[in-house]
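Bug report (template v2)

What were you trying to do?
Predict the complex of my protein with coproporphyrinogen III.

What happened?
Run completed; filing so the output is reviewed.

Input:
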Amino acid sequence: MESVATVPRVQHDPVSDSRFLRACRREPVDATPIWLMRQAGRYMPAYRALRERYGILDLIKQPELAREVTLQPINAFDLDAAIIFADILPPLEGMGLALEFVRGEGPLIHNPVRTAADIEQLRTPSPEEALPFTLEAIRLTRAELDPRGIPVVGFSGAPFTLACYAVEGGASRHQATVKSLMMSEPAAWDKLMTKLSTVAGNYLLAQARAGAQALQLFDSWCGELSPADYANYVLPYTRRTIEIAKAGGVPIILFGVGTGGLLELMATARPDVIGVDWRICLGTAFDRLGPEFAVQGNLDPIALLATWEATRERAQTVLDQADGRLGHIFNLGHGILPQTPVDQVRRLVEFVHETTRA
Ligand code: CP3
């Protein structure tokens, strides 16, 4: 079994000694690293300005623009990692699904997957063929951030969360269509999840090869599953995705929402870091996962909408829960909200660094 200690270190690379990558490897740090999920986005005036001229898919598919958006939060705050600007859904386009982001409504798939025949039709193109723009955006961003010592995080949707959008065709509260397909048609489900894990795994690997120094797998919807269904119908494919991505030799973060019932199962997929939301105490997550895993999280993003006093109190609780353990990466428990005041983000980043500085 691979453990975090076997993640190879790139020689003579100052970024490799960054707080964030050291924490991923559970090495001592000079201060707790912090980055925020969805740190590039609508809460930033600079992002909103670009979005007046470009659609989100334009920003993603033009590598210079994707680099610019990736760097916006890095230039505004003292963040410890950059996440490449992209989305979890473009890989579905390469598989043959028609994706659109509808203003004010979120993503829409015009030809959702509903039958075994639909699943049969899905393609699994290489990431170099289907997603060259994000690989190029990573190369461009690395060139900017290497001299500044800041690592670049690549990412993909995990197979189950990708299946949720592919089958539901957009946002869904209960994931009723995808879950009933999973429960009713195990053979078709296996085909779908095998294809999705191939696409996600190869995409993560290609991002590492393009220069991403860590990879995050977003399984935003896996908390909707019972532990038994997660273990039988999702975990094998998450594990396969991570196995493929491991050839990239960089730390892998597995993130999910509402995963208090699933943590030990998620750990068997052998990521290096597990990301948790605020519905579980960070200390409990550390204790349950044990010394082989770093833990990322877990401030409630709503805390950033409250008074600074209330934000600070909750950020302090996260740090108290981490209790100086090796391998804590400060983050939110889910993506930052568009209505977040920029000043709150600046203060949070300063607070985490100042409070934890050795
Ligand atoms: O974190 C970053 O800064 C990198 C960029 C990033 C985006 N999406 C850009 C984006 C990342 C990591 C994501 C992940 C993502 N996308 C997830 C997993 C994380 C999570 O939130 O659970 C999911 C489920 C998606 C799918 C998605 N993309 C939805 C449901 C929506 C619409 C809802 C919303 O927040 O607007 C998007 C659009 C999207 N992706 C935006 C951004 C900045 C906002 C769109 C805009 O600019 O209009």
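What did the reviewer find?
The pocket of coproporphyrinogen III is lined by residues 37-42, 51, 56, 83, 85-89, 101, 106-107, 155, 171, 218, 220, 335 (CB under 6 Å). The radius of gyration is 19 Å.
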